Amino acid sequence: MVSSEDEENEKRQQANDILYKITTFMDRYVREAKWLAYGVGTVGLVLVLRGVHATDVFSAAKDIPKHFIKNGVRLRGRVTSVEVSGILQINHQPLLTIKPRWLQRFYKTKSLPVELAYISLSPLGQQWIGQNVVGKRVLFLPLGIQERSHPWQDSLLATVYIPKIFRRNTCVNDELVKQGLCKVSYAVEQDMCQMSASQSELLNRLIGLESAACKKEAGMWKVSPSEKKSTKIVGALKGIVTLPWKGLKSVANYFGKWFKRKKE
């Protein structure tokens, strides 16, 4: 007969065998399980980055996803030049760059044409951009696509910012109007009905800045002393010419009231 002690030893041996098999399985396949988890995580991360276009380089206005414009996703890049028409040429820089720097030298990316929203760029404004914006890294908020006669001539309508480390970012659109270097390009009534909240807010802000620049006579709104003097002379002459007519009008009104009282 098998004693109780032998039964206990046999059970212990079976438990040890099961534990040994489990530990052996884990030691043998734990690396594969880890690599499988890493692989699944990597694939998921790639899909997420692809969904947010984190590695895409935009070189045309039509390449900008519609949800970027709708949700106000800020992009970044470096301004290479400014055209006579007022369009900024910006080399878009994606959120993540996969290609190494030494390899990027052999790939020339086409710049993205960006138009300052609701700004009619003047020669003074173009000169200011050349001195303060060209060659610098900027942030730009896409607001829409300015369509032209040909699709390849379309430009991105945007608000451009010069990033500051310890200060508020400088809005190029605001600064040009504030200094009186450019005029506000008003939208037609049809476009105003289709404006988003961000577009309407920007246009109203620019109109207010233009009005303030006119009052301060900043930039192009500055009036020369000779023009001020001629304006005063014209105003004085106008007052002298209209003074007799005002006197006759007051006399006529007086006699009109007097005759009316007599009749009553």
UniProtKB/TrEMBL annotation:
GO cellular component labels: extracellular space
Origin: domain of life: Eukaryota
SUPFAM superfamilies per the UniProt record, alphabetical: Staphylococcal nuclease
InterPro entries on file: C3orf33-like, SNase_OB-fold_sf
UniProt-recorded name of the protein: Uncharacterized protein
Lineage of the species this protein comes from: Eukaryota, Metazoa, Spiralia, Lophotrochozoa, Mollusca
